Each structure stands twice: as C-alpha cells, then as structure tokens.
Design the sequence.
C-alpha cells in the first residue's frame, strides 16, 4: 500500500496485478536483486553508476545533515528525556561519516551491481549518473527504449526538465574542463 498509494492499492491490491509500467529505485536492491528477480523474473534492471568519490561526498553531506537534525532534536527535547523513549539510533551508519569509508561502500555496491548486470546481459542496462545529468534527453530515450516504453520527444523533453542538473558535482565539471572536447 505504501508503494501503490491508497487509490491504486484499492484498485490493484498487488504489484502483480498492475497493467501499467512500474518500477522503483532503491540502492539496497543492489544486494537484494536475486530475491526480486525470483519474484519478477522478467524485470529489466537499470544500474545507474555514479563516480564513487561523488557518492561518498553525497553520503557524507546527507549523514552530516541527519546528525545535525538529530542533535538539534536532542537539544530541544533534552529536558523531556525522562518522558520520551530512548532513540534506537543516533546515526544510520558510521560508514557514511568519512569520505574513505563512503568510497569503499560505493565501490562494494558498484562491484555487486556489475556482477549482477554481467549475468543479466540484455536484461540489464548500465548508465553513468553524470551522463544522465549532462544529457538527460538522450539517456531517458535509452531507458525508454530499453524498457520498451512508448514515448515521444515532447514527453522526453518534459521528463528531462525534472532532472536537477545542480547535482552535477564540481569534480565532473573539472574533469570535463581538463579533458576538453574530443
């Protein structure tokens, strides 16, 4: 129900009954993919590969924001602590609190994803995250073709407008500046 929403849940009751294209994004699928493929053996898998240092910086920023919010909440509720249940956790994972660990974590995910995609062959598509940000129309067209989804240039252009190009890290900008045009 949390995936489908109330309206579609009442209509379909299960993802198995959906008569529309559907999917989901969750990095944890990298390690749980064999289980999902047992449930949905004809699923098409899209692996979006992002530069590991950029992933690590993103994880570190997010973790710092989470810790900041939790610390602020703790300071705000400290006087009521005796009334409130003890928090289950203060941080999601210590692996996201340093760049080195974030890079190692990212590389583990990339290695696992590459293992799966090589076994899946034509059932998997790998894209670079930076390419999606730099040229969303071309990348979205490739995804639509891979998933056998009907589309047109207007729909692709509308979808490309939703891509946040501000997420393109400065490191890729430097890389493009250094490499120059082909």
Sequence:
């Amino acid at each position: 129900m949390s995936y489908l929403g109330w309206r579609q849940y009442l209509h379909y009751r299960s993802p198995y009954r959906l008569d529309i294209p559907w999917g989901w994004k969750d990095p944890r699928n990298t390690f749980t993919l064999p289980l999902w493929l047992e449930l949905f053996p004809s699923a098409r898998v899209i692996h979006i590969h992002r530069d590991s240092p950029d992933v690590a910086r993103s994880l570190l920023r997010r973790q710092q924001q989470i810790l900041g919010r939790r610390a602020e909440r703790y300071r705000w509720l400290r006087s009521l602590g005796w009334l409130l249940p003890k928090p289950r956790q203060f941080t999601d994972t210590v692996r996201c609190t340093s760049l080195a660990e974030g890079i190692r974590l990212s590389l583990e995910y990339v290695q696992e994803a590459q293992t799966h995609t090589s076994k899946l062959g034509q059932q998997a598509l790998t894209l670079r995250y930076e390419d999606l940000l730099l040229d969303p129309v071309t990348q979205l067209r490739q995804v639509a073709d891979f998933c056998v989804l009907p589309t047109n240039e207007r729909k692709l252009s509308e979808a490309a407008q939703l891509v946040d190009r501000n997420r393109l890290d400065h490191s890729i900008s430097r890389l493009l500046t250094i490499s120059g045009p082909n």
In short: The CA atoms of residues 62 and 175 lie 24 Å apart. Residues 177-182 have pLDDT under 50 and may be disordered. The chain is about 55% helix and 5% strand.
